[in-house]
Amino acid sequence: GRAIDAGTWTFDFPSSNINSVTTPSGRQVRYKHLYNADTSVTPWTIYEKTFFDGGTEVARVDTTYTGVAFPVYTDWTIRVPQTQTITQGGQTFTTTYEYAATNYGDYTRPFRITESSSSSSATRITTRAFDYAFTPYIAGKPASETVTVGTESFETQFAYEDATGFLQSAT
């Protein structure tokens, strides 16, 4: 495409848990991985991404994980993001994800997402409920979603055709 710099892209793997990509313009993204040698079905997770421009760090994304029990064949645990923190331009943006204890953590989809910023006192909270009443069985679809900032809330309700899972309305 037109927006891609011509030249050589370099991929570097200096250790088993760090790798990086350098673009033709000299920008670099460094990834740090964590290996979980347990019963997790997601043993490799990226816990840090750092962005450099000309050797100077310009942004960083840190992610922590939690486990959602998924006992299909054994005592599997699926790693899902718990907190993601983005630091850029002197500001910090934090997103926290919460998962239900039922339906395998709503099939690894958070029921509550809380977003905040170091530059604002406002916090946005998105809360979801899921619909599992489909025939044949379809993994839950959003039944409702409420977005709250301060004292203001906006709610959306979703209705589906139970036999197909097709969306019928969103109000």
SSE layout and pairings?
Blueprint: E1 10-15, E2 18-22, E3 28-35, E4 44-53, E5 56-69, E6 77-88, E7 91-98, H1 103-108, E8 112-117, E9 120-131, E10 141-149, E11 152-160, E12 167-170
Antiparallel strand pairs: 1-2, 2-3, 3-4, 4-5, 5-6, 6-7, 7-8, 8-9, 9-10, 10-11, 11-12
Kindly describe this structure:
The protein is built from 1 helix and 12 strands, in the order βββββββαβββββ. With 171 residues, the protein is mainly beta. It is globular.
Average pLDDT, to the nearest integer?
88
Q: Helix segment count?
A: 1
Strand content: over 45%
Distance between the termini: 39 Å
Largest sheet: 12 strands, antiparallel
Low-confidence stretches: none
Q: Helicity level, as a percent range?
A: under 10%
Strand order of the largest sheet: 1-2-3-4-5-6-7-8-9-10-11-12
Coarse shape: globular
Structural class: mainly beta
Number of distinct beta strands: 12
Question: Could you spell the SSE succession in H and E letters?
Answer: EEEEEEEHEEEEE
How much is the radius of gyration in Å?
20 Å
